Amino acid sequence: MRISKLSASKHKKGRILVQLDSGELLxxxxxxxxxxxxxxxxxxxxxxxxALENAARESGLKDRALSMLTTRPMSRKELTDRxxxxxxxxxxxxxxxxxELERLGLLNDRAYAETLVRHYAAKGYGPYRLREExxxxxxxxxxxxxxxxxxxxxxxxxxxFLRQKLHGRITDRRELKRVSDxxxxxxxxxxxxxxxxxxxxxxxxxxxE
Length: 209
Known about the structure:
The structure is a single chain. By secondary structure, the chain is mainly alpha-helical. The protein has four domains: 1-44; 52-107; 109-148; 154-208, no CATH class. Helix content is 62%, strand content 8%. The protein has ten helices and three strands, in the order βββαααααααααα. The chain has helices at 30-35, 46-71, 76-86, 91-103, 109-122, 127-136, 144-148, 154-166, 173-185, 190-208, and strands at 3-8, 15-20, 25-29. A hairpin with a 4-residue loop joins β2 (15-20) and β3. α2 (46-71) packs across α4 (91-103), α3 crosses α4 and α9 (173-185) crosses α10 (190-208). The protein starts with a strand and ends with a helix.
């Protein structure tokens, strides 16, 4: 089979259309033109065509993965799941793309775990909630403790939450339970919540003296 025409796609940047003398049309990337030394009139064997199509497919999946990562950081599992769900990639192909991006330093579960912990801790969430978020995002458990070690003492975050919600007022048991439950939902340990409530009471007593 012979290449009868090479042209840039009008609809997708970086895509090259390869017209064969058989009337078939192949869609490849610019890098494949260089890698396979393609030109009008070149003869392609069946093996060369298969290799060209495989390379173009791999490049397309990699480009799609990079596009996903520029939208927001992801774990390896999130990325491979999305590649399988949103394209016709197999799990093996998605895994190969992830391997390549990890080698290039563009996909890193350890760094992603640290980013997630910082992000949600800044929003006022505690350790339990952070672990749940790491699990939900598919971050391997081996990286959880290391990322969570960077957390500040939760006391400051809990104290700030109490000041915001209670405004320095003396409250009844019902309101204290409501605030305590809210802190628990945010992922803080009950022991840390109880300690913060004691500090709050002590501060009120000092102010009233």
